[in-house]
Design brief:
- 35% of the residues lie in helices and 21% in strands.
- By secondary structure, it is α/β, with parallel strands linked by helices.
- It has a seven-stranded mixed sheet.
- Helix 2 (20-27) crosses helix 3 and helix 8 packs parallel to helix 9.
- The longest helix is centred in the N-terminal third of the chain and has 14 residues, at 2-15.
């Protein structure tokens, strides 16, 4: 049992690209303790197992080797486990708007937040941008890498949780489509400020977010982690930036196999400070 636990702690941590120090901080223990768990020199206290499982996005059964079933971290994880692409391969219209404002006449760095299966990230890479992309769904990350390989381009795709991940590098373009509705109200200012602080002068943000309308039925996808944004709210975070686009549109969607509609706010803003 100890050997299985040691192996799984190390395996799950590495899968999340988490260092021993990062796991230790989440658990309020020393990184030496984590190292000893992973090498089988000691076993974590039984009272810590549920916290370790949560930090590693698993459960106690999975850690102990009774089950390798991982906690479902995204509604779309199961949808992505097919050869087809749930969102298709056509890039978002925002990609073309980005290219108009910041054409790749030099090497520009793009971050795609919540890249899904990679269609937009790969589009940017095919057009000469240097692209980092992350998603919480590991299947989406792997499909992003596969699509990039198929297209003969490079995308640095990795798994990360939108709510926990903070930028440390500067980007010329920060892009996110269909993801910001996962950000709860208490984190919005903090996250967007982090993105703004890591945007180069004249860099841009191209973002959109779903907004509810009383005359549109809720989407059939039941996303437990979705939160509500109000019309115009996204733009309020960019009052000091140049707004190239601030729009709202209603569009048809059949991503779930059930025809429905969404209302979406789009903001494309440039850092002129």
């Amino acid at each position: 049992m100890l050997a299985e636990l040691s192996k799984n702690i190390a395996s799950y941590r590495k899968r999340l690209k988490m260092t021993q120090e990062e796991l230790a901080r989440k658990l309020n223990v020393s990184f030496q303790a984590v190292s000893k768990w992973e090498t089988g020199q000691s076993m974590p206290d039984i009272s810590l197992l549920s916290d370790i499982a949560a930090a590693l996005e698993s459960d106690i059964n999975g850690l102990m080797g009774y089950s390798h079933t991982r906690k479902k971290v995204s509604y779309y994880e199961e949808e992505y486990v097919t050869d087809s692409y749930y969102w298709g391969l056509a890039p978002s219209h925002m990609c073309y708007e980005v290219m108009k404002i910041c054409p790749p006449i030099r090497k520009l760095r793009v971050l795609d937040i919540g890249c899904g299966e990679g269609k937009d990230a790969v589009f940017f890479a095919r057009n000469g941008y240097i692209v980092d992309a992350f998603d919480i769904a590991i299947v989406g990350v792997e499909k992003t890498k596969y699509l990039a390989d198929e297209m003969g381009v490079s995308v640095n795709a990795f798994q990360a949780n939108l709510l926990d991940y903070r930028l440390e590098h500067q980007y010329d373009i920060i892009f996110s489509s269909g993801v910001f509705h996962y950000i709860p109200a208490n984190l919005r200012k903090q996250l967007i400020l982090n993105y703004q602080e890591h945007t180069t002068p004249n860099g841009i943000h191209a973002l959109n977010v779903f907004v509810p309308k009383p005359f549109i039925e809720p989407a059939p996808e039941k996303e437990e982690n979705a939160t509500v944004w109000r019309s115009g709210e996204l733009a309020t975070h960019y009052s000091d930036w140049l707004l190239h686009e601030m729009s709202e549109s209603i569009f048809d969607c059949d991503s779930s196999g059930i025809p429905h509609q969404h209302c979406m706010d789009t903001v494309i803003a440039q850092n002129k400070t």
